[in-house]
UniProtKB/TrEMBL annotation:
GO terms for molecular function: glycine C-acetyltransferase activity; ligase activity; pyridoxal phosphate binding. Residues 66-407 form the Aminotransferase class I/classII large domain. The keyword Amino-acid biosynthesis does not apply. One of its GO terms (cellular component) is mitochondrion. This is 2-amino-3-ketobutyrate coenzyme A ligase, mitochondrial. The gene is LOC117568892. It catalyses: glycine + acetyl-CoA = (2S)-2-amino-3-oxobutanoate + CoA.
Amino acid sequence: MPALSKILSLRAVGQVRHYSAAAQSQLRDILGQQLSAIKEVGTFKAERIITSSQSTQITVQGSEKRILNFCANNYLGLANNPEIVAYSQQLLERYGAGLSSVRFICGTQDIHKQLEQKIAQFHGREDTILYASCFDANAGIFEAILTPEDAVFSDELNHASIIDGIRLCKAKKQRYKHRDLADLEQQLRSSDARLKLIATDGVFSMDGNIAPLARIIELAKKYNALVFVDECHATGFFGATGRGTEEYDQVMGEVDIINSTLGKALGGASGGYTTGPAELISFLRQKSRPYLFSNTLPPAVVGVGLKVMDMLLSSSELSQRVQSNTQRFRDAMTKAGFTIAGENHPICPVMLGDARLASNFADQMLTRGIYVIGFSYPVVPQGKARIRVQISAAHTEEEIDRAVQAFIEVGRGLKVIK
Ligand code: PLP
């Protein structure tokens, strides 16, 4: 009997013993206990299975009904755009499924270079390096460019991937209080590091609030520091023409290093990048480990990025639409008596306070066909539970109004508003 079918037949009668059965059962016990504890405190994350494409209206497993989706980072509504899908299919056929290689061995096609150039053009930068994700871009940058002589100053609420990236580097690590310029200045003043790098999210995704970039740049100039910004929740749609937080705060071109994602507004497939000075990008191609040791982006994914960049370079209509939808939602909700945190960003946290209330509220919204998610501790601070609503350019005004109406009905029922 061939080896595989012998194993399969033994497994069928329960006779296969893994050589490390004892170790494996110990692992199952340890993890099982921790999983039970996670479930007990109510923070176990289950996946809702979507049976349609990502869109403002989706279907989910177990239901035929379309539900209105306010949870995705699909800010420009491009995740299922037919023109983008068709172009991506063309590149799949012409360039194949993938490259089976990292970039510098035999994984760079002309389309990778084209996408890097278009992203640099979009941001007005000298060059760009692509990664498989922005998580990788953040994991790869600090360790590559900073030495023990250097220091990195990081907002305490930065995204997990920035925190992990900084952990990997040997520079002195200094955390400053969230958006607290006095704390940042005090730390910059007392630093004698060779290179000083300030690292911040452009937009903080739990609160929808914005880094005070213009004032951070002033401090950077005063103390000869570099500025790094993660623009995952800004690129393509935030600021007058979607150039991100530096456009919103009127400091276009003044950030030294921008990292961002292709996995949210820019078509929602996957991929990340660093864009900035030519020497930095060239250096990252020599030293950045997620770039050197991970497979190149597949052609179909590159196709999504290329088509989205063409669209955004020729028109800012979509970013204007997400902005007007955001304004419509925030105005109506505030008028109804809800507290919406953050600034005028499509991340609209509806503040509720109590964790159980937030989860009950989200469940009741779903029964009205509106998909929103409640966030509670430890994702947000204790007592600051909320429902995070994310607005897209693809939502119609009627869909926004339906969501507001459902919020009002549920809010009244739960005595959150009068
Ligand atoms: N940075 C921020 C602020 C994010 O919100 C995310 C995604 O959640 C990432 C980085 C990681 O991006 P990607 O999904 O491309 O790895």
